[in-house]
Design goal:
The complex is a heterodimer. Chain A is an alpha/beta fold. Chain A is built from 11 helices and 14 strands. Chain A starts with a strand and ends in a 16-residue tail after the last helix. Chain B is mainly α. Chain B has one domain. Chain B is globular and about 60 Å long. The chains are: A alpha/beta, B mainly alpha. Chains A and B meet through helix 2 and helix 3 of A and helix 1 and helix 5 of B.
Chain lengths: 324, 244
């Protein structure tokens, strides 16, 4: 395990920001850390980076305790804080050289690493510019380049794509995905779509507690409620279509709406059954014309909404992967 | 050691990367030289070596210079959040404090040094003064005490800067702290009614003695110990955020 967090608690003036959370991160894993604002994401990341002390519990990075072996831990991490603080009076290359030296790089290795991260971050064209004159997107990339400098085992990225345009977000997403081959990444983000695409595993934290931990696909699968399959077809009367589709085992409800000459049929099934194939067979057996057959996918956004909703009181329904 | 040098270079460069440094240099040179020249011109018959007037003029304006240099040391890093990036790379708190201290002190000395040239300028323009009127030894020992006083004031200023994230508060507290150090002997005299202790800790007396050429090692120990104590406290304050 590269990260081992056991019963971590952090209190500010008696109020728990992080309340007795435990999780592990395996090497080469890309873990998305999700939660509403004020849920405790940044606090947890700051503790992992050794910037904040914990009130209770233990945090180990690569086997070293972040409190008692802080320097060893800091040698092994690359940390990108939320607001990307940078020395705005320095040039990009000067800043990266300065940070590289502090991270123990020197000589030819420093030069090669600086040019490598300039390239990875797409900063080659602006490497002589003063950081203060760069746009938010470029500053974000300078911060990311800095965190990659010493090729750390663990990358802690707190909202790396905030303030970027869609193209830049895609570039950063691809970069992070490619980092998974060489680094372990812990990534906090608000953009659920991004986490779903990039991460192997998702941790959702709410009010200082972990409320879900599993791969994005499994989390979506654990969602409560029925699965829905939508079929757009023609050739049968709505009543007939509805009757025949309802007869399919596992289908609990069918609704048919005429749309021009086509019929839009929505079939709800029990949670864990895939009825697409059955629906198709019914359509084929009756000689109807099928234009579209799709499952209405629920995504991480639904998971997020469900586990972080204020008043559902649903406890920990999605803690499927806590043991992993 | 390498980290210390990197941080020192960064701190010194940071001073020169902002226009504040150049404005400070020009203004400090102008006001200090003017204070010194006016003092000499207005009191031509007072039997006081030129080096004493020069060192006194420098110390008065040094208080403001120290305040301006020190107020941003940590307060700025805290405000902008760069302290977070600095504290999460493998450098120790001692290296951070010493690097910043060395950077600020060397900048201060670089700004102060050209003022000595005013002395030479005075000799050139004055019809009565000769170069031989300037006591080289006194000038050197005056320089020594100024370095000592500067190192103590910067150490105290750095400690104050560490306690707040607001630069204005840092500046005000720093200015007060610097004057407290300078007037410490006078405060002790007020409280204890004078005595041997007060004479040991009166900074203005040390400056007067040293700039006359009287080198006493006891004040040197005081300044070195005082600076070390302030820096030690600063390291502990910075470390405290890891266990608070």
């Amino acid at each position: 395990m590269i990260v081992e967090v056991q019963n971590l608690t952090k209190r500010y003036h008696g109020k728990a920001a992080v309340d007795d959370i435990s999780f592990d991160v395996k090497p080469r894993e890309i873990v998305g850390f999700l939660g509403p604002n004020g849920a405790g994401k940044t606090t947890t990341m700051q503790i992992l980076a050794g910037f904040l002390p914990a009130t209770g519990g233990s945090v180990k990075v690569a086997g070293f305790d972040v409190f008692s072996h802080s320097l060893e831990v800091r040698r092994r991490i690359g940390y990108l804080p939320e607001n990307v603080p940078l020395y705005t009076d320095m040039r990009v290359c000067e800043y990266l050289r300065f940070r590289g030296r502090l991270k123990g790089l020197g000589g030819a290795r420093l030069r090669s690493r600086v040019s490598a991260v300039l390239e990875d971050g797409g900063l080659t064209d602006v490497h002589r510019q003063i950081i203060g004159s760069l746009s938010r997107g470029f500053r974000q990339r300078v911060g990311l380049a800095d965190s990659l400098l010493a090729e750390p085992e663990l990358l802690i990225l707190d909202e790396p794509t905030v303030g970027l345009d869609p193209n830049q977000i895609r570039q950063i997403r691809n970069l992070i995905r490619s980092l998974g081959d060489r680094h372990t990444v812990l990534l906090a983000s608000h953009i659920l779509h991004e986490v779903e695409m990039v991460c192997n595993r998702v941790l959702i934290i709410n009010r200082g507690q972990i409320v879900a931990s599993d791969s994005p696909g499994k989390l979506v699968g654990l969602l409560r409620g029925n699965r829905r399959v939508v079929a757009v077809l023609r050739g049968g009367t709505p009543e007939n279509v509805q009757r025949l589709l309802t007869a399919v085992p596992a289908v609990v409800n069918v609704s048919c709406e005429p749309q021009g000459e086509w019929l839009l049929c929505t079939c709800e099934s029990q949670k864990n059954s895939d009825i697409c194939e059955d629906v198709f067979r019914v359509v084929a057996a009756n000689g109807w014309t099928l234009r579209e057959l799709r499952e209405e996918r629920r995504n991480l956004e639904d998971v997020f909404a469900e586990v972080t909703a204020e008043d559902t009181g649903n406890g920990l329904p999605l803690n499927g992967g806590m043991a992993s | 050691m390498r980290n210390f040098l990197t941080l020192w270079a960064r701190e010194l460069a940071a001073c020169f990367l902002s226009p504040v440094a150049y404005v400070l240099m020009v203004v400090f040179l102008a006001v200090t030289s003017a204070t010194f020249v006016l003092e000499v011109v207005q009191n031509p018959v007072v039997d006081q070596p030129l080096t004493v007037s020069l060192c006194e003029a420098i110390v008065v304006w040094l208080t403001i210079l120290v305040t301006v240099v020190c107020m941003r040391l940590f307060a700025e890093e805290k405000r902008s959040g760069t302290l977070e990036t600095l504290m999460t790379v493998p450098v120790t708190e001692t290296q951070i404090v010493l690097g910043k201290y060395a950077g600020a002190l060397s900048f201060l000395l670089l700004v102060t040094f050209p003022v000595v040239l005013t002395l030479l300028l005075l000799v050139v323009v004055s019809p009565v003064l000769q170069l031989s009127d300037i006591d080289g030894g006194a000038l050197l020992s005056g320089g020594l005490i100024l370095v000592m006083v500067s190192s103590l004031l910067v150490a105290v200023g750095l400690l104050v800067s560490l306690l707040t994230r607001n630069q204005i508060i840092a500046a005000i507290c720093c200015f007060c702290a610097v004057w407290c150090v300078l007037l410490f002997g006078w405060i002790v005299t007020l409280i204890s009614g004078g005595g041997i202790t007060a004479t040991y800790v009166t900074v203005t007396d040390h400056i007067r003695d040293f700039s006359r050429g009287i080198v006493d090692t006891r004040p040197l120990v005081l300044y070195v110990a005082g600076s070390a104590l302030s820096l030690f406290a600063a390291v502990r304050v910075l470390e405290s955020r890891r266990w608070r």
